[in-house]
Amino acid sequence: MSQTLTIAKRELSALFFSPIAYLVLGIFTFIVSMLLLLTQFSPGFPAEIREELTWIVRLLMFVAPAISMRLLSEELKEGTIELLMTAPISDAQVVVGKWLGAICFFGVLMSPILVHVVVLEIKANPDYGPIFTGLLGLLLVGGLYMAIGTCISAMTDSQLISYLITALITGGLTIGMYILSVVQWVPNSIKNVLYYINVDQQFDGFSKGLIDVRNLLFFVSGIIFFLFLGVKMLESRRWR
Amino acid sequence: MIKANHLVKWYGPTLAVEDVSFEIPAGQIVGFLGPNGAGKSTTLRILTGYLPPTSGSASIDGHDVMRQSEQARATIGYLPEGTPLYGEMRVTEYLDYRGRLFGMDRTKRKQRMEIVIDRCGLAQVRSRMIGQLSRGNRQRVGLAQALLGEPPVLILDEPTAGLDPNQIGQVRQLIGELRGKHTILVSTHILPEVEKTADRVMIIAGGQLVAEGTPDELRQQVRSGSRVLVEAKASRDVVHEAIKQINTVRKVEIQLKNGWSHAIVTPKGNADVREEIGKALLSREVPIREMRYEAASLEAFFIQITDTRRSQSTTQESQRPKLPHDQTPQV
Questions:
Q1: pTM value?
Q2: Does B176 lie in the same domain as B57?
Q3: Domain containing B288: what range?
Q4: Which of B56, B131, B214, B312 has its CA 20 to 30 A from that of B19?
Q5: Cβ neighbours for B136, distance < 8 A, ≥ 6 positions apart
Q6: What is the tens place of the pLDDT at every residue in B144-192?
Q7: Given B70, B71, B86, which is nearest A80 (Cβ)?
Q8: Inter-chain contact B145–A83, Cβ cutoff 8 Å?
Q9: Looking at beta carbons, which residues of chain B come within 8 Å of A17?
Q10: What are the angstrom distances between the C-alpha of A119 and each of A34, A35, A47, A128?
Q11: What is the average pLDDT score of chain B?
């Protein structure tokens, strides 16, 4: 466990060392603040961040891969993976450590939202229930996207390819599923399934203030699935 | 301590390591020699558990590198080829990180860190960022992290690559100082390095172990490649005829320079033919200006043995490599 945290800690500091981290942080903070101002921050509107969170989740499809793209790809490119994989730690510890590091960075990235909550508190009387569940949902979405990103970055030593494939999957899980669920020729039975694996839909409950076990299960199982796949990807590197 | 059992490694259609077996007892320093692309790094990567062998097995300190990989890895300090390090970390930060990965507690980490920093001469650059260090210092950081956990086994892949002669000397000295405390397997293609520090040398070429022994033993095998240089004042034919009639002479090459015949005499086997040459020439009243015995170096042996392998692999022959005078190496 402590080795996993060691890897997570190094990952977090490495993320902060790269200029791209600050770029993502800056742009994201700006966009998120704009979202709040443009969507709900007006007299007469409910004091909540639901609309803002929904848009953030949509944005994350393309922002999350930018954080996760370097996780293992850079190690593969620089060859530092060799020292990591010859240390007495398991592949699972490496993958989970990387993922945890990325989650921590994700937490920092989302911190402007907390400022928005404080602003709402000053100006109005927000309902903390949906805010709390919304943030929990956001964390789960981030966890899922980072798990996908960790898995994909174990496949390639190119950060660009890592970004593109991850974005394709995260985008596919929302936009792709949405498009398929409105297309005529897709049978209804499949549409129900597509509806279930749509991240936007899964998040909806959380943003309303609901913690549905089915939604929770979707994210947790998704995270476990992609982390498991990531470990297998890393293991398979040994066999190539 | 280190055991390799019929290791074979295919990279797709390319055979990188072909049936390599050896055993290294505890405390020995073994030089692993071979030209670039001979399979050195691949063999070391198999031993460190980074790559699985296609077939065969290996164990470190009794732990199988594939089945008990983590225990095996815990006993190894490894310096990979090219010393890949995190450029954005400071030297002390990095060593601390490696210590944590190896599960060392805080006091042990601090204590060992000071020792390896001192030992590897990193005191000056300890708080510098690794990315800003010179090649030599990076190499030292790589060595320091390998030594950090006091592992019983050290596997160093080209620890002196890219260093200047001074630094090479320092690394060699450091490895010498570690003698007895660790079992060391060090790969290189620089011979003097091995000749001076290693207890035993293994030569790999074309993915196969082609020779093995102490540096002295290997040099013995090379002596057969020695020759005698003679300068005598006579025509080529006279000198040639005089030397050629000696039984133990295998080959004579003569060049005429300013009226002096410069002869290069290759004896059969290990024979020292100087006395016979002297007698033969003097009996014909040929004046001798110089006669010199030239022992072949380990380097010549290395070049010869690895060259043979290379030409064999291109002609697809499956013969054992030939030593000078067609002696098969005592592997």
A1: 0.82
A2: yes
A3: 227-294
A4: B214
A5: B162, B163, B164, B167
A6: 999 999 999 999 998 888 788 888 888 888 888 888 889 999 998 777 7
A7: B86
A8: yes
A9: 88
A10: 14, 14, 10, 13
A11: 84
